[in-house]
């Protein structure tokens, strides 16, 4: 499958006989260990490098940004303008469009890693990370291609992100369904579904965009909309909706900005209720702040819904051999089901810490902007629910904090070794 690069690192224990794995050895890392070589891991490594602090990135796949490279569909573009998505210290190339493609973003990340000399340890799946109270350091155990390694470090930075593992809901009758069923993490293009009746479960940005892609490849998609959803135009008044929102929030309270966004959205998109897309009671920005639920930025899907090329369905109740039954009693026959049901953090499966991260959802317990730092040299980057903009903020704060400790220890050692021999 297209995401084998990710699985190559993740499922090493399945692919290799454990008899071939060498005995564990320990490696001292003078700077921080960063878990994850996605945009978050790269950003914090670059910020540390700029300050003269070395670091080591551990990555379970065999490439950087494995989610972007191996688990995203071909037509994906950044949903926000590039100026809100660049990593610290390096802007996007000027010739890139306002909304860079997936391929352009990956090229940017590869150039970023090269410019800052970031060379992750690939195929290194972190099995566990635990703070050793007696030793006063973190012990990070990894399973590699042919050996287990334990890394010892003073600082541990969790950069695996909010989207580490696909969420696959338990749907009644899914084992009876004879058609194709895939998560969007393995969906690439609607070409494979040409002429087929496809049920897309989930009405976030991915679900909406997959439906549009299916339409463009002459498939017949239906979209399951179980909950309320805010759909906004990607641009308003000649500016990006996100950029305009950020500017307005400098001058107006969030409720007034939400009211403005909804008024303009109704003028540009019309009333979405009759399309089966009921808006939540809370405004889009308030809802984002409270729940992390991102509004959908329309790139053409609504027009297809209006023409009937995309059918909107209520909540999915169960699947049978080739039929989907919905909560309103209706049913339909389908050849395939695509789960646009999102992702989740995997931090609780390997990090032995109950203070910074919640065991329930794998996210920092403290809300933004206070969730980036824990105890005993533990940090998190990329868990703000604010995309790459939040990642950049975290990366800068973490590098500044570690740099202070790094310089203080260097000064202490310098002072220690400068003492006369007789006083030691």
UniProtKB/TrEMBL annotation:
GO biological process: auxin biosynthetic process
Enzyme Commission (EC) number: 1.-.-.-
Claim: Oxidoreductase is one of the keywords in the record: yes
Domain of life the protein comes from: Eukaryota
Gene3D superfamilies xref list: FAD/NAD(P)-binding domain
Record-linked InterPro entries: Auxin_biosynth/cation_transpt (IPR050982), FAD/NAD-bd_sf (IPR036188), Flavin_mOase-like (IPR020946)
Pfam family, one: FMO-like
Catalytic activity reported: indole-3-pyruvate + NADPH + O2 + H(+) = (indol-3-yl)acetate + CO2 + NADP(+) + H2O
EC category: oxidoreductase
Cofactor(s) it depends on: FAD
KW Oxidoreductase (keyword) present: yes
Any one GO MF annotation of this record: flavin adenine dinucleotide binding
Record keywords, A-Z: FAD, Flavoprotein, Monooxygenase, NADP, Oxidoreductase
Family per similarity comment: Belongs to the FMO family.
Cross-referenced PANTHER family: FLAVIN-BINDING MONOOXYGENASE-LIKE PROTEIN (AFU_ORTHOLOGUE AFUA_4G09220), INDOLE-3-PYRUVATE MONOOXYGENASE YUCCA6
Protein name: Flavin-containing monooxygenase
């Amino acid at each position: 499958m297209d995401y084998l690069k990710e699985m190559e690192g993740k499922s090493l224990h399945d692919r290799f006989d454990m008899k071939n794995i060498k005995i564990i050895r320990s490696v001292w890392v003078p700077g921080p260990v960063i878990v994850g070589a996605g945009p978050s891991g790269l950003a914090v490594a670059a910020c540390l490098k700029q300050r003269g602090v070395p670091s080591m990135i551990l990555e379970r796949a065999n490439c950087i940004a494995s989610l972007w490279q191996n688990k995203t569909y071909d037509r994906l573009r950044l949903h926000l303008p590039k100026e809100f998505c660049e990593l610290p210290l390096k802007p996007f190339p000027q010739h890139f469009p306002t909304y860079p493609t997936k391929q352009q973003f990956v090229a940017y990340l590869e150039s970023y890693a090269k410019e800052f000399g970031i060379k992750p340890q690939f195929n290194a799946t972190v099995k566990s990370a635990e703070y050793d109270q007696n030793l006063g350091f973190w012990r990070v155990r990894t399973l590699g291609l042919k050996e287990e390694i334990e890394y010892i470090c003073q600082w541990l930075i969790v950069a695996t992100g909010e989207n580490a593992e696909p969420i696959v809901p338990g749907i009644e009758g899914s084992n009876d369904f004879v058609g194709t069923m895939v998560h969007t993490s393995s969906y690439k293009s609607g070409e494979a579904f040409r002429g087929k009746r496809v049920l897309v479960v989930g009405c976030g940005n991915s679900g909406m965009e997959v439906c549009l892609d299916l339409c463009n490849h002459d498939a017949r998609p239906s979209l399951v909309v179980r909950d309320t959803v805010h759909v906004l135009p990607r641009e308003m008044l000649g500016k990006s909706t996100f950029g305009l929102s950020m500017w307005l929030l400098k001058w107006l309270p969030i409720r007034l900005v939400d009211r403005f966004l909804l008024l303009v959205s109704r003028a540009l998109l019309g009333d979405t209720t009759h399309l089966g897309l009921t808006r939540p009671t809370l405004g889009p920005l308030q809802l984002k702040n409270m729940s992390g639920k991102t509004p959908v930025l329309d790139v053409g899907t609504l027009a297809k819904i209006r023409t009937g090329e995309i059918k909107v369905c209520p909540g999915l109740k169960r699947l049978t051999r080739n039929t989907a039954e919905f909560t309103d009693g209706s049913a339909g026959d389908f050849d395939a089901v695509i789960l646009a049901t999102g992702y989740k953090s995997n931090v609780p499966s390997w990090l032995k810490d109950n203070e910074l991260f919640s065991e329930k959802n794998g996210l920092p317990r403290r809300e933004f902007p206070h969730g980036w730092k824990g105890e005993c040299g533990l940090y998190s980057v990329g868990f703000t629910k604010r995309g790459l903009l939040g990642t950049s903020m975290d990366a800068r704060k973490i590098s500044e904090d570690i740099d202070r400790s790094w310089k203080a220890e260097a000064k202490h050692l310098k002072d220690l070794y400068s003492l006369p021999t007789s006083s030691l």
